[in-house]
Amino acid sequence: MRKLPLLATIALLCVSSGLADKPDKQKQSHDDVFTAGPPDQTQLVKEVRHNLLSLPYFSIFDDLTFQVNGSVVTLQGACPPDPPWDIKSDAENVVRKIPGVTQVINQIRVLPLSPMDWDIRRAEARAIYGNADIGMRYGYQALPSIHIIVDNGHVTLDGVVDNQFDDTLIRTRANEVPNVFSVTDNLVVLDKGKSKK
């Protein structure tokens, strides 16, 4: 019974805040690691995506995207400083070893070292993946598809979700976390019939 008012509130928030007017995330100038890409993509693009997804310390707090221009690969995204692991260097190293890659331009941002940001990351992870509706479907993957990027109290959600309802629920949960200045939703909705416009 208590879920009905929550669902109605989420639907109302989505309509009243104009979230349907957001730009289509499918028309990005880069390839997100979590999207499969068009069927005509090159073998090089597939290998770059596979190698980035296979990084051993790639977590829900990292965001990796890339562009392939001929044999030049540009890496983008953001990662927290997390010694002794260095996702920025690891990503560059695995891509550099791919046959056919002649140059890697590493534009991955290393986020500021901030205890408050780490508190927000953990709170956001609990809020999103601790929710039974979301955690059961997205949280039990080897690398969950919803990524939480925190930069000086500002949260960006990146990755992939199945439908618009999940996207709205995740964004609502993310906005409920204390000490967050803003939440930017860059999640890609896979269900084309319910994708963001």
Short description:
35% of the residues lie in helices and 23% in strands. With 197 residues, the protein is of the alpha/beta class. The strands form 2 sheets. Strands 1, 2, 3, 4 and 5 form a 5-stranded mixed beta sheet that branches. A 3-stranded mixed beta sheet has the order 6-7-8.
User: How many strand elements?
Assistant: 8
Secondary structural class: alpha/beta
Beta-strand residue percentage: 15-25%
Bulk shape: globular
- Largest sheet properties: 5 strands, mixed
Mean pLDDT: 81
CATH class of the largest domain: Alpha Beta
Q: Secondary-structure element sequence?
A: HEHEEHEEHHEEHE
Percent of residues in helical segments? 25-40%
As a whole number of angstroms, the C-alpha radius of gyration is 17 Å
**Which segments are poorly predicted (pLDDT under 50) over 5 or more consecutive residues?**
1-29
- Determine the N-to-C terminus distance: 31 Å
Question: How many structural domains?
Answer: 2
Number of helices: 6
Query: How is the CATH topology of the largest domain named?
Result: Histidine-containing Protein, Chain: A
Q: What is the level-2 CATH architecture name of the largest domain?
A: 2-Layer Sandwich
